[in-house]
Amino acid sequence: MQVKLNVIVGAVAAVLCGTAMAQDLVVKIGHVGPTSGAIAHLGKDNELGARMAIDELNAKGVTIGGKKAKFELLAEDDAGDPKQGTAAAQKLMDSKVNGVIGHLNSGTSIPASKVYSDAGVPQISPSATNPKFTRNGYKTAFRVVADDVHLGGTLGKYAVKELKGQSIAVIDDRTAYGQGVADEFEKGVKASGGKVVGREFTNDKATDFTAILTSLKAKKPDVVFFGGMDAVAGPMLRQMKQLGIEAKFMGGDGICSGELPKLAAGTMGDGQVVCAEAGGVEGESKKSMEGFKAKFKEKYKVDVQIYAPYVYDAVNVMVAAMVKAGSAEPAKYLPVLAKTDGYKGVTGTIGFDGKGDIKNGALTLFTYKGGAREQIAVVR
Question: Are 78 and 109 within 8 A, CB to CB?
């Protein structure tokens, strides 16, 4: 009799356990970034930011619409390639993700945004800065950083007003990001009364810049701006040194990484490089950011490169909208996400305007001394 009772109790417990598990809500969050190729260190940095947010959300036991949510991260590699990016986007749509964080590059974020828009799935990029990303009329596209109009224009003004650049050269890698930020930089230089003495271009996989640098050297630039990523900027800095070009070197967030001194192989002089990160942390937010970086280092045994904190905030902003809407269904939480305003993240206060751009986006200007990044100022 006792045996039968134990069997019955066990069966009831199994049913109850199964019922509880059935009531759990599985929420799939997609993340896309270049985790292979020349800028894999940046893509992995972003992905780790997403994993950190997902792990913490699961530990907290978040409920959405009365159900305990179990968050799953579906990570895809786009290798920084637009075609691979759209393929990764479609794969996530086929997997029925509830939302997407990414992509890292503007060149992959822009074409992928149509895939997400067609499916009605929200996408928050932590790092795509080309203005076109939020100018296609897609209601599903958002970003948590300032765009290139602000970034490039600010750097252009800084080159003229603060660095006293008299003859400024511009190089870009012909990607959506690189050419976009270089164009805005050039506009900023001219608007500030500066002179651009040369404009050259390369590509995002190049390693030899002798021809374009030799051409620019003849024009005696005192500032060289590069629109592109750190994997190209490092070798470019080495070759500038070899050719005896002593100009200040500037760039956007793509070069503003912890890896740049290594990629430049020790050829960077203190204060030679000035770059800007499309985000800004000041005041009380500094404590949150430092706390995040410490937790990140403890968890993953590596330092933050650039955008892991912005990925972390993007995941949490998306989930906060789900909680507020009482649903993880894209169509139901998207309108709530679009109205996000005053969210306190580790990167500062987040709110979106009508286009999906961050409100009052900040920039942080950096230089490098002793092989380490050093903050110059936060600009809004």
Answer: no
Question: What H or E segment, with its residue span, contains residue 217?
Answer: helix 210-217
The pair of structure tokens assigned to 175 is 């990607």
**Partners of residue 378 on adjacent β-strands:** 364
Distance in angstroms (rounded) separating the CA atoms of residues 68 and 167:
60
Tell me the HSE value of 226 on the side-chain side, using a 13 A CA sphere: 28
Rounded CA separation 33/77 (Å): 5
Tokens for 95, please give them.
């997997």
- Look up residue 258 and give its two tokens: 């912890």
Surface-to-core class of residue 238, CB atoms within 10 Å of its CB (0-12 exposed, 13-18 middle, 19+ buried):
middle
Given a cut of 80, whether residue 284 has pLDDT beyond it is no
CA neighbor of 296 nearest in space, from 50, 85, 68, 34: 50
The sign of the CA dihedral 323, 128, 253, 156 is negative
Task: Name the CATH topology of 148-277.
Answer: Rossmann fold (3.40.50)
Token couple for 67 = 């159900």
> Is 62 in a helix, a strand, or coil?
coil
Alpha-carbon span 233 to 237, nearest angstrom: 6
Query: How many whole angstroms separate alpha carbon 150 and alpha carbon 119?
Result: 30
Residue in 141, 137, 65, 71 with CA at minimum distance from that of residue 101:
141
Report phi then psi at 257, rounded to 5.
-110, 165
pLDDT tens, 224-260? 999 999 999 999 999 999 999 999 999 999 999 989 9
For 23-145+284-359, CATH number out of 3.50.50.60, 3.40.640.10, 3.40.50.2300, 3.20.20.20 equals 3.40.50.2300
**CATH 3.40.50.2300 boundaries in the chain:** 23-145+284-359, 148-277
What helix, strand, coil percent values describe the chain, rounded to 5?
Answer: 45, 20, 35
Tokens 């800007």 locate to: 276
- Residue in 228, 189, 236 with CA at minimum distance from that of residue 208: 236
Q: pTM to 2 decimals? A: 0.85
Q: Report the share of the chain in percent with pLDDT over 70.
A: 93
